[in-house]
Fold each of these.
Amino acid sequence: MEAYLLNLVILISIYSILASTLNFIMGYAGIYSLAHAVFFGVGAYAGTYAAMHVNASIFISLPVAMVAGAVLSLILALPALRVRGEYFVAASLGLQVLAVTIFSEWKSVTGGIGGLVGIPPVNVAGLDIFKPGQFVFLTLAALVIVLIIINRLVHSSFGRSLRAIRDSESAAAAFGKNVPLIKTISVVISAALAAVAGVMYASYLSFINVESFKLDTSVLIMAMVIIGGTGTQAGPIVGAALLLLLPSLISYLDFLPQTEIGAIQQIIYGLGMALLMIYRPGGIIGRKKHSSAGKE
Amino acid sequence: MMVENTKGTEDVLMEIRNVDKAFGGVKAVDNVSMDLRAGIITTLVGPNGAGKTTLFNLITGELSKDSGSIKWLGQPINRIKPFQAARAGILRTFQDLRLFSEMSVEENVLTSIEAGSLPLPQTGNQRAARQERVEYALSRTGLADKRKTRAKDLAYAERKFLSMARVMATEARLWLLDEPASGLDPHSYEKFLEILREEVKQGVTVCIIEHNLDIVIGISDRIAFLDRGRLLADDEPQTVLNDPALRAIYFGERA
Amino acid sequence: MLALQLTITGLQTGALYALTAVGFSLIFGSTRIFHFAHGATFIIAAYLFYFMDISGYGLFLGIVAATAGAIAFGLLLNRFVYVPIQRDEGSFFTVFVASFGIGIVVENVVGMIFGRGFVTIQTPLSFSTEVMDGLFIAPLSWISILCAAAFFGILWCFLKFSHMGMSLRALADNPELVRVFGLNPRFISACAFTIGSILVVPAAIISGATSGLNPAMGHHVMLISLAATIVGGIGSVTGTLLAGLVLGLAESLALLYVDSQWTEAVTFAILFLFIMLRPSGLLGRSAAH
């Protein structure tokens, strides 16, 4: 039971990092990405590569992963953010599809479909951390640091610019905001921090393969943000916890076919997304839909 | 400081020359040339679809011109982007306001005067100076009590004033106001006119799109009349308002 | 000969891509609704036909069921999801998220009913014959191309000559027009959804017979539709049509140089090149805001 709980907390922490970093661009900047699992994956593969071929110290693997995530996001953001928001959705979907192919084919780095096994435990200042009882503190610490960074950013003038862009891009530009630059920076930050989750994930499981970084994962992360509440800091964490608990909850309901848990889970959150958008676009944590809301 | 208006002889802030813009064969702005002079209020009037807002969009770079040129303070700004226009001192409001609807009143004004393009910390001095200007804009527009209210929760008139407050807090030299007074009750638009006159006295130049003839008469130092993209007149208010041909176009569309 | 073979396959694929993409483009262009569940429409039409086929109802009833299902799905989604959202929020992304959620539901419900693996609609029309030395073509290739041509012909006449068609075109060109012309936006969007959904049906059925179906292919359909809409130029039906053909051809001809798992990368590369070099697309206007 304890092992089960620890495992759950670790996974919730990792997915909370992913959901919070996606929320940073989705909820605050209004950039909808279907490629978040790509940066998760790049972080995992790059961190693992560094750990296996250079050094397992977290002070090596983490920066390597973050830089890799940041650089890749720049390739996506630079062209796709110069133009309308719809383009980013399309380009990120394209990147996600392409990345799965690359993750499966670039065997020397990713181990192909089989993935990478025997990933060394993460090393913090000479200490190997692999027991779940220790690892849980590492992931919680990583989550807290990520949340603090995001919180500071959101409440800075940069964060106000992001929210202004989200609410009205043309008005933000009319008040001197360099919209493409601001959006690009936010995407790079988001991707670099998502890569942190990748490093945690890889060293925790000591095994990764492409299955964890497919479109389904991107969709799951997006659902966590939306169901929890976009543009709130607690929302993504609530969403991550809820959606990761969902499979266990479903398995308690005997009348549902147990072989279809994955599908039922997806149906529930798909329906949840649609219903929330109609009745409560702010998500569970977010504000209720406002009756006096005018059209902007 | 402009205290006395010597109309027609003011410095030209902006020179618009032979500007064209067509949408799918329809000329929205058709060979328009006009000057915006410093320290006065120029009113753009004309029927719906006359190209008034399009002209604003062409000035700030929201849309690109098909041809023609625009100079700002003597420098050509033909390929300017909206954010560069703002930084050069040209600000505009929108007919549909485009407030930052999820942000508070105060944040709306604050973000309008922050650079905020890089995630860098700001100094205490910068912050204090900005806060002062935010306070100025909020108190002038009577929104100080509502500073924590989300923009989308404001009443209609308050939303219009917030749109003005965002501009007032900046140090822009030219304001392009797109129907800022439409739909205001008499009390509010008196207040609006008073604010506008005061700001112009302090050296701001205004170009305003307006339909309400009372307001047009009340504030204009100059009137430019657009119809189907063409500039039919650009002159003293009396001259334009008394022109029977223009009156026919103007009132014809209202009937 | 391989190149010729791949060109014909490419044209066939491209014709089907064009049909699906034009459906999306028409809806998006005239209503500004980012109908991500367009991929789900494809799945519904394809699986309804598949169901009718394996149940032995025959071709005609299958087509009727697929068409009815596609239209009903489009209209219901518009009426019960998009309209309520647009009534007070109307943000592009709110609509996208809702649409996306529905797409997930459809994918999984279909997966639960029909299984997640590939299924193929069996027909003798998909057997290739050697028409020339080393050139194999199945009757379905011709059917795809002719079918697309016929549908586009009808669509072109509709857009060109009917009042509703002209309204749709005008809206795609300039969404502000709806107010100026005093058109009924509800009716127009219902119309756009009907036509957009019908266009998916032939592509769905023929794909089911040629490349097979699986419930997750909605995302692929959406990627192609989005890519074609952007490459063609948002708001341009002709542009989207051309772009669909180009994408199909490129995907097929790329097999001369790369393995088949990279075909989606080719789509992505083309999309990216356009976003970088010509964001307004083949025939579109400026992509600026």
Note: Confidence is low (pLDDT under 50) at residues 1-8 of chain B.
Amino acid sequence: MDGAERPLSKWKQPLLKLRDRLRPSGDVNLKRLQRKRALFALLTRRLWLIKFTLFLAGYLWMIYIPSPLWGRGTYIDENALQPAQVNTNWNWGDVHAADRHLEQLECIRDGNWTSEQRARWLKEEFGKHGVVSSTQRYSFSTSLTTIHGTNAYAVLASPRHSGTEAMIISASWLSRSGEGDGTINIRGVSTVLALAGFLKRYSYWAKDIVFVVSDGYLDGMQAWLGAYHGSSQSGLYAEPLQFTSGVIWTALNIDYPGHSFSHLGVFFEGLNGRLPNQDLINSFERIARYTAGVSVTVYDHLDPRAEPSANKAPWFLPQFIYNIPEVKGYLYQANNIVRHAKYQASGRGSGVHGLFHQFRIDAITLFAVPAMGPHGFHAIGRTIESTLRTMNNLLERLHASFFFYILPGPQRFLKIGLYLPSVILISVAMMFHGLSIWSNAGWVEETLPTEKESKVQSTTKWRRRRRPIISALCIMIATHTLGLIVFNIVTTPWFMKNPQALSPCMLVLGIATPLLFVRRVGTDVGSAPTFMVLKAFNLCLSSTVISIITLLNFSLAASLTLFLTPVVALSSPALSAQVRLIKYSAYASIAFAWLLFHQSLVDVVWSWQVLSVWLAPFICIVYTPLVLQAAIVCSLPC
Amino acid sequence: MLLGRRLAWPSTLLYLCLAALGSQSERFTEKLTINSLQDGKVASKFTFTTLLKGASPRDPQKLDGEDESQHYTLFPLALGQILREHGVTELHLTLNAGNWNYDRWGYPEETGVGTGAELWAWMGDGASKTVDERWKGLRNALAGLFCASLGSLDDLRTTSPAESFVPEGSLPRWDAPHQIRHASLPSEHVCTENLTPFLKLLPCKSLSGIASLLNPHRLFDADWHGMGVHVVWHEGEGVEVRLTFQAVLDPLRSLLGKKQDWSFQSLYDRTIHRGCPVAQSSEVVASLPTNAVYAIQPEPHLVERNLAVYDVNTADKPLNIRLIWPDPFTYPLEYHSDSVPFSVRRTLRGSSQAWGQLSVVITNHRSTEVKTLYLETMPWLVQFYLHTIQTRVNGVVNDGVLSNLTYIPSVPHSRPTTFQVLLTLPPKSTVEITMEVTKAFLRYTEHPPDAQRGWDLPPAVFTPVEVTKNGSYSPPLGGRIYSSTLLVDLATPDFSMPYNVIIFTCSVVAFSFGSIFNILTRKFVVLRFPPDNAL
């Protein structure tokens, strides 16, 4: 403070210079404004670089996600769980009981019993163990078929407790292997039956245990859960449940189709991108490893670093590169993440457990990966018993660990901060791109046409111009309305019954309709071209959609950055009308390409009508119109 | 040890003298009944009754004055002091664990089987301290006596359902009327710390007589167990204290032989070595199977219909009653109970944290019409929308089932709802009542430490009644039926992240304050750029 009056020493001069720079002489406010302007000018001039960097960083980040160096090891967050801390009682006698049930079930399978007969038999078997049991009939009518089925379930009331909480052990009649192509989950059902007799012998259950053998693959459990929670659904008739229990906190779905198994695979993705609390997966993983000595895998992918059978280089990679541990690890984790993204983005989840998440129940499927050995009923029984004990320990709902994560391996995970920014960076880049086009549309550089090539900066003058917001907005609204109409047509029974014939017509109609009203779009002299405003809006809306979807369903958002972002960002009109038309047709075909995948289309509509998976409406009402807007951008005159 | 043996004789003599003395004005009886149930479980009920002859409850109008001295021999003094201090005429306290399964186990011998703690008392009015003040004192005193969280039965849970909880004894005809206070706490757990003070109230503790079978290791492992303290005044007889302990044990759980056999040793891991010398009667009643082969040892003193009766005081010691079935047990596929007129299933549907639907399904098993009072004493956490109440009989909408509805709405953060309605259940039919409810949004400090668990809601109470001609209810024999308790999820903040929440809120506050303050205190002037600096 008092140093100002002394003679200046040499080392103080740079400091003073710095001070001058920071607090210049003259009008401080004016300087600040000038500084601000200079900064904005710099940013505006370098905007293309910023956008490019953001796009590049986002995509590179996405590629880096499967790296074995990224993420960390899983851990148990909830102290109450205490996994693998109990001595299990499941023994060879119980394995024998499961074998007996299996024999009877094989007779039932070979005897081609109806689902009604089967459910009645299951009900009686539960009853013989002293557990109250009942059956539930249901039918779903979708625009394609009507599905009938009968579930069997039993409620083991917890001793010494009021039964306000419950946990579920379930097995669907059809196994997930081949997504319900008719493979019967026969050992899964016999495990559930044997568990009913076994678990009843112990008094330490603080929660009711509900055993459900659901009919079909996904439909039975959807009907049962809907009836349990009193939610109604159009097209569904389900008998009310005769016995209920309390609030269900956790559920284990058992899928054991083969004769023996080598690994227990964990499937966890739920409907519409929901995930169960990670503590449940981690507890199961530790219990299987320490209590039963079974290795856990994610899905049915075997780790090539541990399993020689899976140690094969893919066709595109020479063996010596594949043998680098990091490369091997990367490919294995990438495989897992791509599978995860498929399940999550499709919104259909990866199995029966996915239906539970919509009712705030944390659930996973234990999938016994079919193999020639070495594990069987003994290992799976012990794993389930110990996992139930862990779930039984819960005093509160699972809430401590993560609900947003990616599991690249059974013992590694990425928390949200490690993967979410990739998509957010891309969506920010899109937003910047859109905003820059928007602001460019508002200005026109007034120079003589002849001087265009000479690039004389000093003679140009910027003039404001009008931006045709209304026509751009009208186009957007029209495309979304078209999407809604397409959605309503696609979900009608007559379309679903013969998609092969109707979807090409639909495709042509969808591509042709926008051309009709686009013809009417004219450009006023002196105002910005409509395509600029439309493109700006299209980019901003896409960016907003992507960043919102990121939190709800990361995989869907990531797929959008792959399939939507380039289309939307690169759309531009051409000078000649023919090129414009070709470009438009190409873009519009991308928008409606999904119509040509008949089987997937039927599946997606079925998921919407039975499971309320919002992928079908999302594609029709959000994705297609956004791409269509990009197509219209291409078709508009410059 | 030696000293103990030397003292044993004089103390026994003293005991006998006291017993003889006490017997003039006090009478202690004990009884154990054991029933085999349909699903292979065994229900046992211990009853210890002390009658204080000629005594009467304290008149609340004399609460300010000096009370008469309390000299008891067998009557529990700790309890007597509480009763007289607060002027309580009738008191019922039950602490239960588990859910009584009426369909499988039939009607319980002791009515109060609602999960958790339930306390209700009839008290005379007219004292200088109000009934509510005395109720508060009573529950705090009982909380101390029984080591239970009865202090939590506060205003948030207290109601006055006089028609469903009619006095079991008589009420003195004082100037001021009697009032009832009732509260239940479903999340209360019962365990050893409650049994120990319970045993202390018994004249023989758990040293001799039937009470020696009360082994906490076995009783608290039972599928259902509960204890009760009932104080009733019978006009012309006196004040009666009835201490009960009920347990439903599962002999099939431990035995590998899949047989329903039971004995004192297998059920309680104890036998009776000595009778209680002050007990005027001490009997064990075991129900015998009606349509199965069995053997019972030792030979009962008396067999009445299908009941085997033993007198503990005269039986050979150690007494270990055994009932043996030669055949293994098989579970029946259908369960039905004649003693319960209807079965009840109550659920709270909907997975939303803001609203839900209360659904009550009542199935009348009888071929006659049954009338019953349906009572909900719901804390304010769940509020009813009465206009959405809908009744279906066998799936068909029928509002004629409901009548005589009384409703005291809840007051947020204080009073619970009292909802009582008379149901007329048609013969052999299923009645479903549904009602929309809204779930409360709690203050931050109102959440319990285990916030993510949810809140336990008390059971609904059904009281079968007959309606007399003048419109009043007369409860027939039988009694209340409790539904199961419920758990409700309320919107819960993420308490695991207080640090993040603090950072976020502070940032938002600082940011908005900073910008507003900046604009408010700024002076706006026009600045002109020098022309060469224009962009």
Note: Residues 1-5, 19-23 of chain B have pLDDT under 50 and may be disordered.
